[in-house]
């Protein structure tokens, strides 16, 4: 990093400490998306900027202008203000507190890429403030949060896109997979297996001083108040530049307090496609069976007994009984992707390939014209933001709507509850509650820390 960049960041941190905001202000003017002409670009803001926050922002410059960014880490916020300025020519205004973004009348939509435990609070408050929402997956930390989001979408009429980008992107492989199934190319589905990778535990992670520029209390937000923890070893590759072992930064996915481990990370992608293919997007399973699993720490009554190590599952095999008694297997073993098995054949699909005899047979017996578009519900958008902006203009819900996402995610949430309690769960998909298990039903919601309740 150059001396100029270091000096700029230092000044930014000082300004953040003094005022809680930085950047170049853009003039605000009252507006509503419904009044924007097809040729006018919507105005966006991104809340939560590390890794995926920048990814979804960078994919959206073609479709929208960014007037504001928000993050509780001043270092991340400063870096992203500069990157956005470089891409669009004007600097967005930066905020430590996302609520300042929601107060602005010129912003049409927010993109949310915070850790999972913040999603619902920000999304609900954004909709109540008149903003359309694009929120990263998994949408919620609990099943009851999903019900609340559905209620507020219906109440406000805001457009809400969930960031399950496999529905739009990845060379349409997943859409082709669903089209193959709908065209009967593997006969009746007998079994679906979602490989979503395992995880690793961690060493004991000590409590240390909070890094400069990070508002740790605000990062925790609705989650319980705990010490910041990290070891010196740094993460490499995607999500790099931060501690490998920590209860913050990229590693928050390994803690049930903030996320749901691999089950809610990759599971939110592949279980989504599997549920869509099974035609179960408005119902889900009736039973969840934890066939096998490994937790990195001891549990008692569904809660980890230590607070200084990762606590989400490292290995697992879960069987979800889907409509028609079709087994949906979620496993940490094998290739990452989805294996569809039917009475006439089988094929495998992931982000890099779609393979199997039914796929090979497409050379001589292609899918009917428009089959993929029929799955998508019309011409396939260029990317997920494109679909979101089209929905904003039309005032319709986009391809990854909250209802189908929540139904799918209920399978993942229930799998985690089954693992935490170590027993099979019977699920009533109509009442959306666990049958005859009061303790298990207590995990359908979580109490927010005082001062961080949803502002309704």
In short:
The chain is of the alpha/beta class.
Set out the fold topology:
Elements: H1 3-19, E1 21-23, E2 43-47, H2 52-58, E3 65-70, H3 74-88, E4 93-95, H4 98-103, E5 109-112, H5 116-128, E6 132-135, H6 143-156, E7 160-162, H7 173-182, E8 189-195, H8 216-220, H9 261-265, H10 267-277, E9 287-294, E10 299-300, E11 303-304, E12 315-322, E13 326-331, E14 337-342, E15 346-349, E16 354-355, H11 357-360, H12 371-376, H13 384-394, H14 402-421, E17 425-428, E18 433-434, H15 438-441
- Give the CATH architecture of the largest domain: 2-Layer Sandwich
The average pLDDT is 92
- Kindly give the count of domains: 2
Q: Which spans of ≥5 residues are poorly predicted at pLDDT below 50?
A: 1-35
How many β-strands, per DSSP? 18
Here the CATH topology of the largest domain equals: Dihydrodipicolinate Reductase, domain 2
In which order are the strands of the major sheet placed?
Answer: 16-15-14-8-13-12-9-17-18
Enzyme class: hydrolase
InterPro entries: Gfo/Idh/MocA-like_OxRdtase_N, Gfo/Idh/MocA_oxidrdct_glycsds, Gfo/Idh/MocA_OxRdtase_bact_C, NAD(P)-bd_dom_sf, TAT_signal
EC number: 3.2.1.49
Domain Gfo/Idh/MocA-like oxidoreductase bacterial type C-terminal: 203-453
Could you explain how this protein is built, in words?
The protein has two domains: about 5-165, NAD(P)-binding Rossmann-like Domain (Rossmann fold); about 190-335 and about 400-445, Dihydrodipicolinate Reductase, domain 2 (2-Layer Sandwich), CATH 3.30.360. It has helices at about 5-20, 50-60, 75-90, 100-105, 115-130, 145-155, 175-180, 215-220, 260-265, 265-275, 355-360, 370-375, 385-395, 400-420, 440, and strands spanning about 20-25, 45, 65-70, 95, 110, 130-135, 160, 190-195, 285-295, 300, 305, 315-320, 325-330, 335-340, 345-350, 355, 425-430, 435. Helix 5 packs parallel to helix 6 (about 145-155) and helix 10 crosses helix 14. The two termini are about 45 Å apart. The chain has 15 helices and 18 strands. The strands form three sheets. The chain has a nine-stranded mixed beta sheet with strand order 16-15-14-8-13-12-9-17-18. A seven-stranded mixed beta sheet has the order 1-4-3-2-5-6-7, with helices on both faces. It has a two-stranded antiparallel sheet with strand order 10-11. The protein has about 450 residues and is an alpha/beta fold. The longest helix is centred in the last third of the chain and has 20 residues, at about 400-420. Strand 14 (about 335-340) and strand 15 (about 345-350) form a beta hairpin. The model is unreliable at about 1-35 (pLDDT under 50). The relative contact order is 0.15.
